[in-house]
Amino acid sequence: MAAFVRLLSFHSSSLSTSLNSIHQNQSLYKNNSKREVSVAADSCLSSDFILNSRFAINPRKQSSQFKIHATITETDQPKWWEKSGGPNMIDIHSTEEFLNALSEAGDKLVIVEFYGTWCASCRALFPKLCKTAQEHPEITFLKVNFDENKPMCKNLNVKVLPYFHFYRGADGQLESFSCSLAKFQKIKDAIRTHNTDRCSIGPIKGVGDVNLETVPTNKPAA
Fold it and tell me: Rounded to the nearest 5 degrees, what angle is found at the Cα of 184, between the Cα atoms of 101 and 210?
């Protein structure tokens, strides 16, 4: 009888140990599953954690997914020069568009900004120019990309960027100057001077007799 009791006790102990082992394995499996799900859902984990992890995760797949997402986000954002200050700010892509815009403006003041996409000063000044366009809906603002319109820009003596021209009706070109963000007051002063209530008499002058289609050549000395 004693032997039977000892045997029963032994089997009970073994059974308890086995049950505890199974329970621990189940807990470890749950913890591992939770950790694996957490890793798969997070694309911002460090590369050291991903490479040293013993779970089934492909680091190349994680990296490529992150890069594709970043590229899509970047291309969805407009470039700084593609932004607009409002309907009175117009992008100019050709000489014909430039001349038509000056003609259609009639007697309104026209401010032309010559810029380069690579120009740091142009980029720094641009947000303030957009704000000025919003504050003056009665003024037409033209944006001319220097690299897209080099012959026209050179014929208009644009030699530094950003550069500004002011036009108005029959008066034609009123003023021209270079300007940076630090000297933006020059633009405000020019607006105050030329944006007055008046009516021009005569046809719209625009750029006058300047030929904008060809690049001027230096004539050889006689």
Answer: 35
3-state secondary structure of 141: strand
Segment (H or E) for 48: helix 47-52
**Which residues have a Cβ under 8 Å from the Cβ of 106 and sit 6 or more positions away?**
169, 204
The CA distance from 92 to 79, in Å, is: 16
In this structure, which amino acid lies at residue 145? Answer: N
3-state secondary structure 50-115: HHHCCCCCCHHHHHHHHHHHHHHHHHHCCCHHHCCCCCCEEEECCHHHHHHHHHHCCCCEEEEEEE
End-to-end CA distance of the chain: 136
Tell me: the pLDDT tens digits for 58-103?
Answer: 555 555 554 545 444 455 788 999 988 899 999 999 999 999 999 9
Residue 89: partners with Cβ closer than 8 Å, 6 or more residues away: 130, 133, 141, 142, 143
Catalytic residues: 119, 122
- 213 vs 86, 106, 144, CA distance in Å? 29, 23, 15
